[in-house]
Amino acid sequence: MIRMVVFDMAGTTVDENNVVYKTLREAINQAGFAFTLDEVLLAGAGREKLEAIRNVLAMNGVEDETLAKDIFTKFLALLDDAYRTLPVFEQPHATEVFHRLRDNGILVVLNTGYNRQTAEALTQKIGWAQGIDFDLLVTASEVSRNRPEPDMILLAMRHFGITDPLAVVKVGDSTVDVMEGRNAGCGINIGITTGAHTIDQLRTVSPEYIIHSLTELWPIVASPLAPVNQHI
């Protein structure tokens, strides 16, 4: 029986038009680089943002922790400016799906590679409230190891006293999301094509399902013994 669904935020449940990764690219390129958005998404999607910067720089053979931290500081300042005027929306049907899960006794957890300040700014702009629309928010700020390590999911499990990872579903729009769920031992790991990575990119990490809309989630959760790969 499924007890909890863990959703990624940007690209999965939140539509912010890739502003975070566009801002990340801007901060990196202001340091003298010329990365494309696709390159930033490939190396950084789903990851804690300082780690994302390290990974993007490594694509150019650069390993400079001081530089990475300087870019991260710049990124946070640019992102704060962007969020003051940024229109942020939920991905289609996200609230509806959250409420259906909660109405059927299934916990809804949001987790993200953002820090808590950024993640809470997103939920507040959309109007989501913990205890009403979702049950818990876990961010990169709360764990020492980030995606693809399973620590955020394991923290959510401990919070609710869930000991069997097979009772947990992970949903995300990046390969790192799927890897996080698999590393946590989640019973079902689902890629969704509404965000960072394409269906072909998601296939490289072999999720049990790939979906194109959050509305496709309920039949999977309601029938967890359905044959795997039927949506890939």
From TrEMBL:
Family annotation (InterPro entries)? HAD-like_hydrolase_sf, HAD-like_sf, HAD-SF_hydro_IA, HAD_sf, PGP-like_dom2, PhnX-like
- Species, as recorded: Dyadobacter beijingensis
Q: Which domain of life is it from?
A: Bacteria
State the name under which the record lists this protein: Phosphatase
> Which Pfam families does the entry mention?
Hydrolase
